[in-house]
Design a protein that fits this description.
alpha+beta, five-stranded mixed β-sheet
């Protein structure tokens, strides 16, 4: 179905911006509402961005030079090899406005998730040549949990802008290749450079999608040359970053991180994963992933291959559901408004037309999608094997405990932190956390896997003996051990802590309570690290129970 079917126009780009705003409005409104629900239900951001915010802080401290390492995340820190663009942006925001880092990680991702719906809509409008289909695509993207999860959460300070740059660049590529308009070379080059400087996975998504547009629309020397200008030009423009990183850490620093966060085909759920999935999670999350499979059958029957190829390519090569859902939304829109709409018009005794189908489809997706998306955004969905969909890694009690640690322990003090609050701990306290996988991927597979497994082992300990034995076996000697009380998460999976561990630690002569509030207990290790009382400013009197009970 094209815009010509509904408005008797030959092209969707011949009408004014008011028409565009009307079709884009459902997606924008849905996104704004979901962001509002997220903020109301999350006084602290979901997941982690402590390392990202500490990077921005270090950049600011160094006069906006690239840091060599980021301290406090494991002994000796971790290499700084991340694409740096958004860390510089966050550093500027902090320096200019003085906004609290946690506030930045709550608000910035959500603002960008609203903004990237504009290039989603424009790409769908021009690729599908249909405003109604573009409206549906952007609405599905706005309410899809796999997209919400990684972009509105704390790490969205990097991922959401990368998505914005990549989608805008892919749209520029469509205009370049299909319209043969070389004016889009410069925007494509600029956007690819921004993506390279923001996130490697989104760079792969950009390059793969751009290549498929070339194959589909312009398999000529002209197209190949423009594509090479964009691809190699973007890499060269980003050279001030990657050449400096390689000069400091060597070429291996980039290959070391490859594969530490998943591999090929990670976006295809296994049969066992689907069978063991909670019913509400299956409905809320997986439905948007499975529906395009039906649409692929329709497109193949119609001999329209670009969307199926794009879907399979991003699923297999990247293996991240958020990208599969994005491309799948294009397939879903085509299937519902063309195949289903045509069938209803032919079979319905009520004279249903395509306008009615468009209206009904948008209302249905807005109602069901917004409802399920709201449940997901407020963490009312059991995802992650029964754990909350968007868990907060830190709470008010964590922030209070971390403030105590910063004020009442020596700068050289070392900690072991149970649970996902560990991701925020170094950024909030400026104290070294000896165990944690964040940023360690740049050191290679073996160090990363060691830290990840040790973090999980420590976080699952439920007795002083387990804690002591696990730390001793790994050769880790902290000055303090930081324990959450009640519910907490480990790599996003919810745990429920009983009083058994706290009682065991209290009774052990090896540990002494130095801080406790309603959600956290901090123990000093009496014969570990640098010795008894070595980490506190007051010879072991480090403000016990200063946080209240």
């Amino acid at each position: 179905m094209t815009e010509q079917n509904l408005a008797q126009k030959t092209t969707v780009r011949e009408q004014g911006y008011k028409r565009e705003c009307l079709w884009l409005a459902p997606a924008l409104l849905a996104s704004v509402l979901l962001f509002y629900f997220y903020l109301r239900s999350h006084p602290y951001p979901s997941f982690g961005a402590g390392l990202y915010l500490l990077i921005a802080e270090r950049i600011s401290e160094m006069g906006y030079a690239l840091p060599k390492t980021i301290p406090y995340y494991t002994e000796g820190g971790v290499p700084f090899s991340y694409p740096p663009l958004m860390f510089y942006v966050v550093a500027v925001i902090r320096d200019v406005t003085g906004v609290d880092p946690i506030a930045i990680s709550r608000y910035l991702p959500g603002i960008v998730t609203i903004a990237y719906l504009v290039p989603v809509y424009l790409l769908a409008r021009d690729l599908l040549d249909s405003r109604p289909q573009a409206a549906m695509v952007s609405l599905i993207v706005a309410v899809s949990p796999p997209v919400i999860q990684w972009h509105v959460s704390a790490g969205g300070i990097v991922r959401a802008p990368a998505f914005l740059f990549a989608l805008s660049g892919i749209y520029a590529g469509l205009r370049l290749y299909r319209d043969r308009d070389q004016r889009w070379v410069v925007p494509s080059l600029a956007l690819f450079t921004l993506t390279v400087l923001t996130h490697p996975v989104y760079t792969v998504f950009f390059a793969l999608s751009y290549f498929l547009l070339f194959v589909q629309f312009d398999r000529t020397l002209w197209g190949l040359t423009r594509g090479a200008v964009v691809g190699f030009g973007g890499i060269l423009l980003a050279a001030p970053w990657w050449t400096q990183v390689m000069a400091i850490h060597g070429v291996d620093v980039f290959t070391a991180a490859a594969g530490t966060h998943g591999g090929l085909g990670g976006g295809i759920p296994s049969v066992s994963e689907i069978l063991n999935m909670e019913a509400e999670s299956l409905f809320v999350g997986t439905a948007w992933s499975l529906l395009p499979l039906v649409g692929i059958g329709y497109l193949l029957k119609e001999r329209r291959y670009f969307l199926p190829v794009w879907f399979v390519a991003v699923t297999v090569v990247i293996g991240k559901p958020r990208f599969s859902v994005l491309v799948g939304s294009f397939i879903t829109a085509v299937f519902l408004l063309e195949a289903v709409g045509t069938w209803l018009k032919r079979e319905s005794p009520f004279g249903v037309g395509r306008r009615e189908v468009v209206t009904a489809a948008l209302v249905l997706i807005a109602t069901v999608g917004l409802g399920s998306g709201a449940m997901y955004a407020t963490s009312d969905v059991n995802a992650h094997a029964g754990s909350p969909s968007l868990p907060q890694f830190v709470t008010h009690d964590d922030v209070q405990a971390m403030e105590w640690a910063e004020k009442n322990t020596k700068p050289s003090a070392t900690f072991v932190v149970q649970g996902d609050a560990a991701e925020w701990f170094p950024q909030q306290t400026h104290r070294t956390m000896l165990v944690g996988p964040w940023g360690v991927e740049w050191k290679g597979h073996e160090p990363y896997n060691r830290q990840l497994n040790l973090f999980r082992d420590i976080s699952s300990c439920n007795s002083a003996h387990c804690m002591t034995h696990t730390l001793s076996k790994a050769g880790v000697n902290p000055d303090y051990v930081y324990l959450p009380k009640g519910k907490f998460t480990v790599r996003g999976m919810e745990y429920k802590r009983t009083s058994q561990l706290a009682m065991s630690m209290h009774l052990s002569p090896k540990y002494r309570t130095v801080f406790e509030n309603d959600g956290v207990i901090v123990f000093e290790v009496m014969d570990g690290g640098q010795g008894e009382g070595s980490g506190s400013d007051s010879g072991g009197n480090a403000g016990q129970n200063s946080g209240g009970n």
